[in-house]
# Entry
Amino acid sequence: MNAIAIDGPAASGKSTVGFLVGQSLGFLFFDTGVMYRAVAWAIQDRGISSTDSETVGRMAEELPIGVSAPSSEEPDGRQATIQIGELDVTWSIRSPEVDRIVSVVAANSQVRQALTQKQRLIGLEHGSGEAGVVMVGRDIGTVVLPEAPLKIYLEAPIEERARRRFLELSQRGKDVKLARILEDMRVRDLIDSERAVAPLRPAQDAHEIQTYGATIQEVVEQILLLAEKVFGVGPVSCGKEDISSEGSSGIALV
Ligand code: DC
# Structure
């Protein structure tokens, strides 16, 4: 199976690194967090409380979440286009408001059951194909795709992760305070790692990588070296352009 599972806490670098690893190897990249975020955004939009477990669970089962590779008309730095029905929610699911409730949504067992099932199907389908898949989340190596031959767990101190999230939101023009982000992140870490179902933790056979003090490129290269050992493949020779042109064909993942 050509699958790489990348897990780790919020803003540990999973999607930045995972996306680049996927590009280098010609593997499909799939960030599972966007599905939890889409459900969180939808309940907020409809005025449903995140603690109304049954309604939130049903929402996860029924919400028409679409994830597809960005088209060439969407050159705004997105890694994927996320839709709920026809509505493009790619950026709205990344708001601080969604950040604040998404961990509660992700701790809901009905939500996890619905989304894990879909994610596992995507992982199996693409991981068993020739192209391969890089899946990122919190429980990919432990629950979604435990058979992935290469598992990575990224770490970074919470202050550094909060700083990264602060920069990311500020660059998108959001008026945010570092102290508030740090506080929210503490709460999210706690909920993500202490929930009863599929808590955040490294799989037993995961390679743990500290991203603090390392450049993105260094972390990517570390993973590519491991991938070469496990899969016997190095970076694809077709390069970035070819892969994004595959993206522009609009592969729908979900
Ligand atoms: O990685 P992220 O910040 O976009 O994730 C959003 C939330 O979804 C976060 O609270 C953890 C949760 N999540 C999860 O529980 N399992 C996953 N496989 C991916 C994300």
